[in-house]
Here is the input.
Amino acid sequence: MIWQSDHPPVEVGGATLDAMVRATAARVPHRPALVDGASGDGVTYAELARRADRVAALLAEHGLGPGDVLAVWLPNLPVWAGVALGAMRAGVAVTGVSPPATEPELDAQLDDAGAKLVITLPSMAARVRGRDVIAVGDELLAARGPVPSAAAELALLPYSSGTTGLPKAVAITHRHLSTAVRQFQAALRLSERDTVIAVAPFAHIMGFVPNLAVPLAAGATVVTMPRFDPAGYLELAARHRATVLIGAPPLMRLLAAAPALPDVELIVSGGAPLSADLQRAVAERFPRAAVGQGWGMTETTCGATAPDRERGTVPGSVGRPMPNTELKLVDDELWVRGPQVVADGWLRTGDAGRIDADGNVFIVDRLKELIKVSGYQVAPAELEAVLATHPAVADAAVIGRPDERRGEVPVAIVVAAAPVEEAELLAWVGERVAPYKRPHAVRFTDAIPRTPSGKVLRRLLRDREPAMVG
Here is the structure.
């Protein structure tokens, strides 16, 4: 059986993101496009278009054009948007580098992407080796040459999160990107009256598409936040009267206990599974807001399913298929097909899931991360959701440990919010799941390694901290 979207189809391709944002700038030139959360400095849509022109001219002066790749190594700042749009105007593809990347990680990505130029902060420029580098400052907007307008196929070269292996480049074309923007807009319905707090890194597909590209194409205001700080996030949301909050499950845990933010109308979780209980808790805290989940991956230009702003989503569900998108289940694995998908035909997502009679999609876990216990399959995400309901647990991950009799057994890795004993946590989970699912041990740690989108890096827990599962 094939499940299809209940949204009308959207236009496929036909424009670049730069052209979409320029159309917005022509419509609302004086509306704030971006605001620096730290300083409060704003950039209007007219100023954003001019900045993109200057960046495009600068890249041409440095010899970059269609077929070349620009690396952007910046935290979430308003300048990110002008640089990316200027590159696209010049026909140059953008690869975003994670702000906390180490020098070996930076070098590996620059080599793999073939980046000719890096734009970064002055404080980070000295760490770039073997490439031309421009530090953010006066030079960025100083070019006075002609503004190129070059056609190119490739728009973005983001790197997958590397949850089960090394990060890999994903070639996002302008056709993929513009289509994905329209698909998200059909579900999220952003407008000129919206304000979005953008904390998911723009270097990651989740940060770039729903947190930056979609709002800018719609005429909304994006308030940037370089790194996640719980108190700072809530203060920004209150001060700027944010209407839309998009982030990973750690943000949802914050919102479930947050003070009232009366202007919020839409809350979207993505990047990692969100339990039905936590989704309900956020919805109870924000009764005027639609609260839902979306699901996708870098290879789907971020989105395969999304919540609907008018309808929300069923708790625990990641919403319904995007416009122009088809889903099917093959041996419990979700396969997806659509114009935003970076693959020919059906993409095997690697996610185990189910779809109910109304077309609501539920993610069980990553197929490669399922723990095989005496022939049963145990989803780490299910146990993590149970652990998260304990008042003394700040964060948790579950991984498999080899076991001679059972094949594997679950082991919980926990960040404690208050003193708690292993036996108490084992009993807490044991009362709430079937016997074969129960963890056999609890290990405590200071932090759970996660990707920028919130996925648990189980590979690091297994490879770098083997004593935890011993």
About this structure: Residues 370-469 form a domain with the GMP Synthetase; Chain A, domain 3 fold (CATH 3.30.300.30). The longest strand covers residues 393-403. The chain has two domains: 2-364, 370-469. The two ends are 43 Å apart (CA to CA).
